Amino acid sequence: LAMGGDPGDVPAARAAAEAAHRAVRSGEQRGPGNPSAAEDVAQMARRSEPLLDMKQRTTHEDPNFMETFFRASRLHYIGTWKHRYEAFLEDLPPAPKLPAPEGGPGGERVILHVDMDCFFASVAALGRLELAGLPVAVSWSSAGGGELSSCNYLARNAGCRAGMRIARAKELCPNLIVMPYEFERYSAVAIDVYRTLHELSPHVMGVSVDEAYVDVTGLAACGRKTPREIAEDVRAKIFAKTGCVASVGSGPNRLIARLATKRAKPDGSHHVPASNASSFLASMPVAELPGVGRGTLEKLRREGIGSVVDGVGPNTADPTCADVAAAPLSVLRRALGPKAGAQLRDA
Q1: Start and end of every UmuC domain (predicted)?
Q2: Which of 98, 110, 115, 152 could form a disulfide with 121 if both were Cys (CB 3.0 to 4.6 A apart)?
Q3: What does the pLDDT look like over 203-212, one tens digit per residue?
Q4: DSSP single-letter state for residue 6
């Protein structure tokens, strides 16, 4: 195998993962567990977290304030994850040269985009049976003014979202269990995920604590597994190793693979071959492209780029990738600027 690892050694892992998924789903169908016991778990987790010893919060009373402040920061943790990942890579042998795309199915490269589902919330539930079948979110605060960072799908189905105030989330989901950040647990699970990916292929690009790209062109070239089957094997191995669920998109490049993951979520996989890439992109809202936000959408709408609803009135529909591709480059440059307009067109 050009990419390392044997994709045929996972039937037991896949069967175990499927059995666990069935157990989780059947538990959800029976309804929530014991919210009172789950609240006790959340409170215990907060009491055992030294960074939540909320006494004085200024440098005047606490000379170690800045150190503890950054150690308790989610953004700081995410930003410093790169150093943890690089330390992990130091113990691995150098990756060999990437296999030629001609080795893949149909002569194309096969890239997986692996994205852990509701990572912080999923890790919070590991080993805590009291949280099974309950809506779970993560935030430093348990008070109404705090903001949610991550929600599992039970919480999302009730309307909870990342960035939402806890008070509002509790209105939508009274049984919501809010767990504190547990950075060491996240790191341990993330390293297990990356170890699993590197066992599959030496060509892994770490994006964040819960997201990575994997080139599996060599595995696909062997003809023993389709890209979809490889993706399912990866998901099964990750679940068997960590107890957390990953969604996997695959395609001929990183952009297509990442967008395919949006179709895979939650708890699934989706493959877009190169032959279908153009049609896959055509109907996709341009807002789903990385880096395209509200400001960009407003500028495109002002230039009339997009589908006119019912053929009358101003254009208020979100433009699709096909709309952008059909727009003259001069219009895109006028709307977004010379560089950004060309970049969006070439995306």
Answers
A1: 111-293
A2: 152
A3: 999 999 999 9
A4: -
